[in-house]
Every structure is written in C-alpha cells, then in structure tokens.
Design goal:
By secondary structure, the chain is of the alpha/beta class. It folds into 2 domains: 6-51 and 324-430, Alpha-Beta Complex (Aspartate Aminotransferase, domain 1), CATH 3.90.1150; 67-319, Type I PLP-dependent aspartate aminotransferase-like (Major domain) (Aspartate Aminotransferase, domain 2, 3-Layer(aba) Sandwich). Helices cover 43% and strands 12% of the residues. It has helices spanning 6-9, 18-28, 52-61, 63-66, 77-82, 90-103, 120-132, 149-155, 176-188, 211-224, 247-254, 290-299, 307-318, 320-347, 374-388, 415-431, 441-453, and strands at 41-42, 115-118, 138-142, 160-164, 193-199, 227-231, 265-270, 283-287, 351-352, 360-364, 390-391, 393-394, 405-409. The strands form 3 sheets. It has a 7-stranded mixed β-sheet with strand order 2-8-7-6-5-3-4, sandwiched between helices. It has a 4-stranded antiparallel β-sheet with strand order 9-10-13-12. A hairpin with a 7-residue loop joins strand 9 (351-352) and strand 10. The chain binds pyridoxal-5'-phosphate.
C-alpha cells in the first residue's frame, strides 16, 4: 500500500457488492447448452442481444462504412487514423442528436453543439459530476438505483450519494416528501446538495417516470437551485405505453429558455442499451450550460470514442429508414421477451413490478424469504446462484429499502435459455413449499451447510468484471 494513492487503497469503488460478486460466480461456471448445461445462467447482465441481426444486416448492405470508405468508395482511412479533435466528428454528433430526438418522438430538439461525446454513459455521468460537484458534495438518487453509480458518481470524484427512499407501496414512485427527506438527510450530514440524478427509464425498475414525477423533479431542482441529471440510457427501449417522456421535454414545457433552471438540467445517453453496443463505448452528455459543455468537452480527452466507431455510427444513424425500423422492431422483440419472463414467473407464483421499458424486470420474491431481512435476501440470492443456477441481482445491491426484490434481465440470453431459467425457477419454488410437509428437509439442511460456507470473497485484483 505504500506510495500508492488514497484513491486506490481505500475501498470506495463499490465492487464489494453482491451485484459484482454474482458476476464472479457466473464466470467460474457459465451455462452452455452443450458444454455446461448445469452451469449458471446469466440474468444479471443488462445487455441487449436481441437485435444484432438488424445491425449486421445494415452493415452487410453498407459495407463501405465499416471498411473506412466514403459513399463514393474512396478510402478515408488516413483521415480517421489521424482525426483527434475532441469535439468529435460533426456528422456523428449531428446523427446522434437527431437519433436522440427521434427516440423522443421529435418532441425535443437536441442541438449538436450542446452534445459532448464520451466513452459510454459511465464516462458521461462521471464527467457531469466532475463539472457540477466538489469532493464531498452530494447528489440525491431515488432507490433502487443502478449499482454502478456507487463507482461512477463517487469513486474518482469524491462526491456522495444520498438516497431518495422509494417504496413498493406506491410502485417505487418518487414523491415530494421523499425528495424533501433526502434533502434534509444530506443537510443533517453537512453535505451540500448539488443535484438529483434519476434514470429514466429506471434501471432496475424498468419503468418510465410519469409526467407528474418529472414536473415534481423540475420544480424541486428549480426551487432548491440545484441540478438535475437525467440518465436516459434506456430511452429507446420503451416497448409499452405510456410513451416515453424526457426530462428535456417537460423542462421545455414548464420553463422558458431564459429561466436559469434551463441550464441546470442535463441528459446522459449512450448506445450501449438501445443499440446493444456496450463494447463500442458510445456515450454522450447533453447540457444547455455553456461552461459545462465546454469543460466536459475538454475532459472528454480522457475517454473519447474512437474515430472509426464514430464514422460507422454516423452512417448508420443517418439512415433514417433504418433507425425507424430498428427502433420499432427492437421494441417489439423486447416486449415479447418481457412478456415471456412475466408470464413464466407468474406461473411459478412470482409477480413483477408492472413495467414498460428496459432490459429487465423488477421481481417480487418477498414470499420466498425466510424472514423480512436483507440477510434472508442474501440467503435466497445464494440459493438462486448455487442451487438454482441463476445469477440475478438482489435488491440490496441496488440500495432497495425493502428486502426480497430482485432484478432479472431478459435480453442477454436466447429464448431457449430463458425458458430453461424459468423451468429452474419453477422447480425451485415448488421445492420451497413448507418445510414441515416436505420430504426434502434433510436434503435442505445439508445444502444450507454449503451456503454457510459461502464467503464474500472479494478479489481486490479482480477489476475485469463487466458492470451493467
Ligand atoms: C442507468 C445506467 N447508466 C449507465 C450505465 C453505463 O452504460 P455504458 O455502457 O454506456 O457506460 C448503465 C449500464 O448498465 C446503466 O444501467
């Protein structure tokens, strides 16, 4: 530890969460239909693998874009190899801004000059925190929230997260009193509140914010003189009504451009989910604040999108016929998968929070807990991983306030594998019937011994886990 920075020797990365530990367990024993049919099925990964064929077909019909050629067939290899302007390729920024508008039913007009390109939303979120907060300043986040935020918002910036506590009794909706309570809590801890950060649609809930919630949020940040960051990374995945409403849309309805809150609402976006391209690292932040845009553009030097990726995506996103078809077909596929998961779980006696977006369901397994505690939630989660063979994300890893909720992803696996996962869940639930009447009691207690042996092994060197 000697001569190393405090940043890397303290434990603030947030990786000691069951969310990431589940990943480690999956990687040791991954399911494969042929090679490892008893392995762990990955349902803890918010990846969209449902529409690769559409992207591949576009590339097959447009080979010049991926081969560094312009529409005239001339090579642009040298220009791309040398290109290093951190403002990004203008044609890509325009295409990205238009794609973002298209997702919002063209109700929001994004100006490419206010867009800053970043290596994914991870980088966009962190960059915004660097621009808006000093170390020790706080952002309020509704619970449950994406576990990666503990790393993205806090680790390198030194900022703090204060939870806005949301509950199942109103379907985890954000209320005025929850916002006020979080604000007071931050003040009690002597933290200066710089803003609220929401994900819309929500990861892990899979729900979109209502107009009432968005009104409430804009009014709240306006009154307090703080910022609103709206992470809209799942905005193109909304597969069911109500239709998607962006924070920018509500802002433009409520406030005049001369109002200073106009400069305090910022959007984060990425193609990791809507297009299923997390490996390409294509993200952006959008802000009406000139200084934020200028500083974030300078900071983007630390995490730019490579020029050949920008070139390829500029061509793809400029093809309006393609983007329209892609968005609707991808949403249709997501809807079908979502229905399959919800119906399969219901047959097993498990209900999900009603949702209309995202790549996952927020699943209520409270009735399967041995007690209403987070210890019992982790006990159930271990059973899910080791006994049932499914890596799912426990609600506690998302800072949920109530034990017994889990996030189950449905778009990163094939229909057959999802079918198998549902079968495994169903037989597990059947085997969990009251212990007294079950002949499996002795079997159960021997398995329990196995679980108690389970230790939270956090390999400090294991930084290669993907975090989605
Ligand atoms: C809400 C949210 N924000 C940001 C990210 C990070 O995405 P990216 O791959 O664009 O960095 C994720 C990934 O799961 C996410 O769910």
């Amino acid at each position: 530890m000697k001569f190393l920075s405090d940043k890397i020797t303290n434990n603030s990365h947030g990786q000691d969460s069951s969310y990431f530990l589940g990943w480690q367990e999956y990687e040791k024993n991954p399911y494969d239909e042929i090679k490892n049919p008893k392995g762990i099925i990955q349902m803890g990964l918010a990846e969209n693998q449902l529409s690769f064929d559409l992207l591949e077909s576009w590339m097959a019909h447009n080979p010049e874009a991926a081969a560094f050629k312009n529409p005239e067939g001339e090579s642009v290899f040298r220009q791309l190899a040398l290109f290093q302007d951190y403002h990004g390729l203008p044609e890509f920024k325009n295409a990205m801004a238009e794609f973002m508008s298209e997702i919002r039913g063209n109700k929001v007009d994004f100006n490419a000059d206010n867009l800053v390109l970043t290596a994914g939303s991870t980088s966009a979120n962190e960059t915004l925190i660097f621009c808006l907060a000093n170390p020790g300043d706080a952002f309020l986040l509704p619970t449950p929230y994406y576990p990666g935020f503990d790393r993205d918002l806090k680790w390198r910036t030194g900022a703090e997260i204060v939870p806005i506590q949301c509950f199942s009794s109103n379907n985890f909706r954000i209320t005025e009193s929850a916002l006020e309570d979080a604000y007071k809590e931050a003040q009690k801890r002597n933290l200066k509140v710089k803003g609220v950060l929401v994900t819309n649609p929500s990861n892990p809930l899979g729900t979109t914010l209502t107009r009432e919630e968005l009104n409430l949020l804009i009014t709240f940040v306006d009154e307090k003189g703080i910022h609103l960051i709206s992470d809209e990374i799942y905005s193109g995945t909304v597969f069911e009504s109500p239709a998607y409403v962006s924070a920018m849309e509500v802002l433009s309805e409520l406030k005049d451009k001369t109002d200073d809150v106009w400069e305090r609402v910022h959007i984060v976006y990425s193609l990791s989910k809507d297009l299923g391209l997390p490996g390409f690292r294509i993200g952006a932040l959008y802000s009406n604040h000139k200084m934020v845009v200028s500083a974030a553009t300078k900071m983007s030097s630390f995490g730019l999108i490579s020029s050949q990726t920008q070139y390829l995506l500029a061509a793809m996103l400029s093809d309006k016929k393609f983007t329209k078809k892609y968005l609707s077909e991808n949403q249709k596929r997501l809807r079908e998968r979502h229905e399959m998961l919800v119906a399969g779980l219901r047959e097993a006696g498990i209900e999900c929070l009603e949702s209309n977006a995202g790549l996952f369901c927020w699943v209520d397994m409270r009735h399967l807990l041995s007690s209403n505690t987070f210890e019992a939630e982790i006990e159930l989660w271990k059973k899910m991983v080791y006994q049932v063979g499914l890596n799912i994300s426990p609600g506690s890893s998302c800072h949920c306030t109530e034990p017994g909720w889990f996030r189950l992803c449905f778009a990163n696996l094939s229909e057959e594998t999802l079918g198998l996962a549902l079968k495994r869940i169903s037989s597990f639930v059947a085997s969990e019937q009251p212990v007294a009447t079950s002949p499996r009691k002795s079997n159960k207690s021997s398995k329990r011994k196995g679980f108690t042996k389970w230790v939270f092994r956090l390999s400090q060197n294991n930084d290669r886990n993907r975090e989605r």
